[in-house]
Amino acid sequence: MKIIDLEPGDPLLESDLLPVLTELRPHLTPELFREVYAAGHPQGLRFSAAYTDDGRCVGAAGWRIVHSTSSLRRLYVDDLVTAAASRSTGVGHALVAHLEGHARAAGCRELDLDSGTHRTGAHRFYLRERFDIVAFHFSRPITPGGDAS
Fold this sequence. Notes:
By secondary structure, the chain is of the alpha+beta class. 30% of the residues lie in helices and 26% in strands.
């Protein structure tokens, strides 16, 4: 398995990574993905792609280094997905190890992510990978022109 980091404008983002990423984020179109990466890259957003020995992209990770008062410096994983046909083959484990390498190199104290409550298979994977459940994540939708109260 080979894992590479992709910069904005790399054609592999759309040809290889995006088809895998849309298994997790089906709302992403190529245009929206380009917009998100263009806006997110200056904020630290990066993408890594996992390839089989025969050159197929089978995994994707979106991540960033975040500085905060709670953990000081951490690597936050926005997206972590293995193509459905390649699950349970070590792709996720390899991506987590790759991200941990980035975290160590950046002096991070933690590697963390959020996972939707309905993704129980992913939760089993994260627990096997020695992630702990350390918080609840709360979300409040913001509607355009809505009441802020």
